[in-house]
Amino acid sequence: MSSLTPHQSTPFSKVLIANRGEIACRVMRSARAMGIATVAVYSDADANARHVREADEAVRIGPAAARDSYLKVDAVLDAAKRTGAGAIHPGYGFLSENADFVTACAEAGIVFIGPPASAISAMGDKSAAKARMHQAGVPLVPGYHGDDQGDELLRAEADQIGYPVLLKASAGGGGKGMRVVESSDGFQAALDGCRRESQAAFGDQRMLIEKYLTQPRHVEVQVFCDRYGNGVYLFERDCSVQRRHQKVLEEAPAPGMSEALRREMGEAAVRAAQEIGYVGAGTVEFLLDASPSSSQEQDGRFYFMEMNTRLQVEHPVTEMITGQDLVAWQLKVAMGDALPCTQDELAIRGHSFEARLYAEDPAQDFLPATGHLEHVGLDLVGAGLDPLQVRLDSGVESGDEVSMHYDPMLAKLIVHGDDRSQALATLNRALAALDVRGVVTNRAFLQRLASHPDFQAAKLDTRFIEHHHDDLF
Ligand code: ADP
């Protein structure tokens, strides 16, 4: 990228989407609106999937197992070459944060719609990322992320940080290789356990240690950078409502943020991105200390957790409050355009929520559900809902099959309102109007969450579901 001079463009008129489900359909929508032709790829399990039906062209890339299809670099590149696609959009998951894939795209002369490989690598390892962020002056959770991994040293560091601490695999992700340690006595056993888990999942045993915040909020900042050194933040999202470290309900903006804190976090996030030469859409995740002791300070403190070097599942809530199309931004930036607007031109309008609809059974410990979707529908008119305030980003339609091969997320329900309480009322009405038959979903669970008095009162922290277990199940 450094060889590019400002305004050197890399236009493309056809894009391949290396993904499936709702995000593939979502990306195609913006591409189509910009007059860009679309190519879908699919596995045998997805031959009749919605994303295949909606694309201009579709290429089979392998059998059902993701490692033999959606994760197969050669098959995806081959499909792009065969169809003459000038660019690849990776969506989220699959190849989206695979630096080798980005390099392979460059070698094949295909534009990767995302950051340079070096930026992905810089954030891929949690310890290295933290060291880098420290240099850039981005606040970190107190902790240890050094190279020395001796048992004694790690234990001494944990004692020094003060319990409870959180042990995290440097190479980790998806909540794996992570354990809370309550006291010095339990440290060695937890360390051994985490190392084993991390070795099995990532082939790497390096650990980092963090102060364990007992009541944090997960607040993340959407950033965007172009090739010419410009960077902006499109404000924040609160994703505190999580189950097993996976997000369930998201909203933007984060409730209760002062303008000063919003600016401070936004600027820190842009600094983080610029430190690693970032280009495109990215998200910098922070923990915001929401514990009672920190509320004496007006806002609490925030700490860098990680950067996701791709478009996030929850990007639509940001689109709803800013009026921007983030996929269109991605496509333009990948073509070599400068950012569509400056920081001063961005503003927050109203409030937005997103609820993730999963094919899973909350009564059976969220066991993924499969089957024939007899009906999926949202009758906005019948429910008296304004189509401008409700958006359903779906990867399925009535009559589709839901298989066990991939992530069980079927759709995302996104709403907008003039303020948080209006948006929440709309979310509750839209959830009630959402009609899914044939496959078990978490819809009723989402309704219980969204109508919970503490959620309505924005009393949020990452253990919300755990703490309200009796009300929610
Ligand atoms: P992963 O990459 O495996 O998803 P993260 O580092 O992003 O792991 O953390 C996932 C979740 O774990 C966070 O959203 C938060 O809920 C919780 N978490 C992470 N670090 C801490 C911490 N230091 N204290 C308390 N909770 C934490």
Main attributes of the structure:
single chain, 473 residues, alpha+beta, 8-stranded antiparallel beta sheet, 5-stranded parallel beta sheet, 16 helices, 26% strand, globular, binds adenosine-5'-diphosphate
General description of the model:
The structure is a single chain. With 473 residues, the protein is an alpha+beta fold. The protein is 32% helix and 26% strand. Strands 14-13-10-11-12-15-22-20 form an eight-stranded antiparallel beta sheet, sandwiched between helices. The chain has a five-stranded parallel beta sheet with strand order 3-2-1-4-5. A hairpin with a 2-residue loop joins strand 11 (231-243) and strand 12 (246-252). The model has no long low-confidence stretch (mean pLDDT 95). Bound molecules: adenosine-5'-diphosphate. Adenosine-5'-diphosphate is lined by residues 141, 166, 172-175, 210, 212-213, 216, 218, 242, 245, 285, 287, 305-306, 462. Adenosine-5'-diphosphate (ADP) binds at residues 141, 166, 172-175, 210, 212-213, 216, 218, 242, 245, 285, 287, 305-306, 462. It comes from Onishia taeanensis. GO terms for molecular function: ATP binding; biotin carboxylase activity; metal ion binding. This is Biotin carboxylase. Its cofactor is biotin.
